[in-house]
Design goal:
The protein is α+β, with helices and mostly antiparallel strands. About 30% of the residues lie in helices and about 30% in strands. The chain has four helices and seven strands, in the order αββββααβββα. The protein has a seven-stranded mixed sheet with strand order 4-3-2-1-6-7-5, covered by helices on one side. Strand 1 and strand 2 form a beta hairpin. The protein starts with a helix and ends with a helix.
Length: about 160
């Protein structure tokens, strides 16, 4: 009886992994950033918020190509479990996975691009969209990521 239970348990977990069912509690990291194609200076700015091995937020700003006046800058900050729970509560993983990889025309006419990436145990999804725009159903999530980017990237 115990063997049958263990076998069923393992089979169900394998099927979940194979089918790529991603849920909030399985999120390992959430990243968000902006970039400009025709740019001198710090053209790319991003944050990466990790839940493992410890909760932390990593900021990065860098040029598009090597520029001695603009070296890449990275800084780590602590991020609380409460901040993490609040952030992941703003996103529906299933709906996020259904988004197109590119929405609108990011960085057309050098208007800038914005992106969000979510990494689960078994999958990663990145979505690019026009800087400053919102994606229907993800407005609060995008605004929170923008607030975090502004708060932390501007301090490095």
């Amino acid at each position: 009886m115990l063997r049958r239970f263990i076998f069923c348990f393992l089979l169900i977990n394998c099927l979940i992994l194979i089918n790529g069912k991603c849920i909030r509690k399985d999120i390992l990291s959430i990243s968000s950033g902006t970039s400009f194609g025709r740019c001198v200076g710090y053209c790319r700015r991003s944050i990466n918020i990790k839940s493992s091995p410890k909760y932390e937020l990593i900021t990065l700003k860098e040029p598009n190509y090597i520029q001695t006046d603009y070296p890449s800058v990275e800084k780590q900050y602590s991020f609380s479990i409460d901040q993490w729970k609040q952030l992941i509560s703003l996103v529906d993983p299933k709906s996020f996975q259904q988004l197109d990889e590119t929405i609108g025309c990011p960085d057309c006419a050098d208007g800038g691009a914005e992106w969000i990436e979510i990494q689960w145990f078994n999958k990663t999804k990145r979505v690019h969209f026009e800087k400053g725009q919102l994606i229907k159903g993800f407005e609060d999530f995008i605004n929170q990521l923008r607030n975090l980017r502004d708060q932390y990237v501007n301090n490095i």
